[in-house]
Write a structure and sequence with these properties.
The protein has about 50 residues and is mainly alpha-helical. About 55% of the residues lie in helices and about 10% in strands. The protein has 2 helices and 2 strands; from the N terminus they run E-H-E-H. A two-stranded parallel ribbon has the order 1-2. It is globular, with a radius of gyration of 13 Å. The mean pLDDT is about 80.
Length: about 50
């Protein structure tokens, strides 16, 4: 799972994914381009599934 370093994600959030064997990959601090790929993918999925 790729995620940013937002304050809303606590340690227990990562533990849920670790329990199923998924690793949390944090986007680099200050690298806005790193999250842009995730945002574009999410937007594509939303457009395809919800429209």
């Amino acid at each position: 799972m790729i995620r940013d370093r937002g304050d809303q994600y606590t340690g227990s959030f990562d533990n849920v994914f670790a329990a199923i064997g998924a690793d949390a990959i944090h986007t680099p601090s200050g690298a806005l381009w790193a999250n842009a790929f995730a945002e574009q993918w999410i937007g594509s999925i939303q457009r395809e599934l919800l429209e």
